[in-house]
Amino acid sequence: MSTSGTRKPSPTAPGKLRVVMAQQDFLVGDIPGNAGLVIDTVRRAESEHQADIVVFPELCLTGYPPEDLLLRPSLDVRIREALERIQAAGLGPAIVLGAPVREGALLYNAALVIEGGAITGRYFKRFPPNYQVFDEKRYFADGRDVVVMDIRGVPIGITVCEDIWREGPVEDAAASGARLILNINASPFDVDKQERRQALLERKARENMVSIVYLNLVGGQDELVFDGGSMVYDHSGALAVEAPQFAEGLFPVDFLFEHHCQPISQPLPEAQSLEAKVYSALVMGVRDYVNKNGFKSVVLGLSGGIDSAVTLAVAVDALGKERVRAVMMPFRYTSSMSLEDAEAEAKALDVRYDVFSIEPMYDAFMAALEQPFEGTRPDTTEENLQARLRGVLLMSLSNKFGSLVLTTGNKSEMAVGYSTLYGDMAGGFDVLKDVPKTLVFQLARYRNTVSAVIPERVITRPPSAELAPDQKDEDSLPGYDVLDQILNRYVERDCSADAIVAEGFDRADVERVIRLVDVNEYKRRQAPIGVRITERGFGKDRRYPITNGWKSGK
């Protein structure tokens, strides 16, 4: 293993260094636009913060994750043109940024150092991840070299994202003389990710006696949300600087360099509650998905229930009330309470609100189906027809007005198939797709602490799809407090049925829930994407075959 870089580390000498963490939101695939953002950001960092070094996220030139755009024949040309443009921009500070770089026949996830209009260093990510939502080994080769460079008189080691989670890269850089590590990331959010990052960085900094700049991407990309939360740890393992989560910005950090490269501590942001973090992730995910894909507005079905109430609040907080339309589509089983609560929610958030009864359409369909259904008893077919009529109405409004349909199903429902294909699943983006029902209740209460927009009885009354008289969700499912615990163990932790039962759960409930999860994979494959907030969401994370003979149990 070699140490590369155009300049050897300099002897330790007293000095100062200002690093600006460019925690920004890049658009996947827009290589010219991302290059322009890099140039504009460096100029701002120089003029506003007198930056010595500006650090950008992993693969910022392509955005993350670029997926099969990395296989496009013109990728190398576009990256070369973007880098030439950055080098020709006459930028003063040193720049560390992420880009895909080809060497021979192999493509690498690289961190590049640009100084004085030239690329002065290249580091190739040594551990491209291939788990959860990551499939980098599909595209990238493993890097091998250690890179420690003298930048502005400081010996600095470069690493990329996953490298800091593995043994080797930080240790090798420290052994090669680095006193500061710049680690560039595209690390997606989940509910306790920041705490795991902090524990890791504290250990890595302390054990290797190096300061670490952990620079993270921010923004939404399809189902992923990148939460920022960039951090700086000193060589003793103390957290010196933490940028806010879910916010773009330039965050300058001053270092004093003598024997160690010591960051000057700054006030740390207040710790956020789980509900506050999840709600912020949902808002960012919706905002970026709608805006980056060019939708003018969103429309959703407002039922008077808690899922649609929380979805409406997120949509308004993400986009503003002018870009949100709510539609109530009552039927004979819709309670007056639901009608009242839906109207109250729409008024509280001051959105456009329409009421379209599906009764005439239902009657027309049932008349058309009278002959083929003759001699049969009403069942879920008639219930699902109600949901599908609502889906047709919402999709028609979407087509006519260019609005994205937001669906309102939560993770608990998606897991067990408590949803209707081409009905309540019809739409483009499911805000609560990775949010368990019990957490939906918590989010409703959290949002009401900001301003009361969800009536209390929406939170306290038993959930119901109102597709049949006096219907309640718990008529078909275990209570959500039990259901969500079983789902967490089976879906997110891969526990077997026997292992879940051994924790004290009723075997009949466990086996029933697991069977429902397994047989409804076909539905989830056809469901809209939605914001990922757990370590194991339905989508990139969990890829099970629809057709399979696996038996649950051990």
UniProtKB/TrEMBL annotation:
Active site, renumbered: 58, 125, 161
Binding-site residues, ATP: 301-308, 408
Record bears the keyword ATP-binding: yes
Annotated keywords: ATP-binding, Ligase, NAD, Nucleotide-binding
Reactions that this protein is recorded to catalyse: deamido-NAD(+) + L-glutamine + ATP + H2O = L-glutamate + AMP + diphosphate + NAD(+) + H(+)
Enzyme Commission no: 6.3.5.1
Top EC class for this record: ligase
InterPro entries: C-N_Hydrolase, C-N_Hydrolase_sf, Gln-dep_NAD_synthase, NAD/GMP_synthase, NAD_synthase, Rossmann-like_a/b/a_fold
Boundaries of every CN hydrolase domain copy: 17-257
Pathway: Cofactor biosynthesis; NAD(+) biosynthesis; NAD(+) from deamido-NAD(+) (L-Gln route): step 1/1
KW Lipid biosynthesis (keyword) present: no
SUPFAM superfamilies: Adenine nucleotide alpha hydrolases-like (SSF52402), Carbon-nitrogen hydrolase (SSF56317)
An example Gene Ontology molecular-function term: NAD+ synthase (glutamine-hydrolyzing) activity
Binding-site list for deamido-NAD(+): 384, 413, 523
PANTHER family (UniProt xref): GLUTAMINE-DEPENDENT NAD(+) SYNTHETASE (PTHR23090:SF9), NH 3 /GLUTAMINE-DEPENDENT NAD + SYNTHETASE (PTHR23090)
Chain's role: Catalyzes the ATP-dependent amidation of deamido-NAD to form NAD. Uses L-glutamine as a nitrogen source.
Family in the record: Belongs to the NAD synthetase family. In the C-terminal section; belongs to the NAD synthetase family.
Protein name: Glutamine-dependent NAD(+) synthetase
GN (gene name): nadE
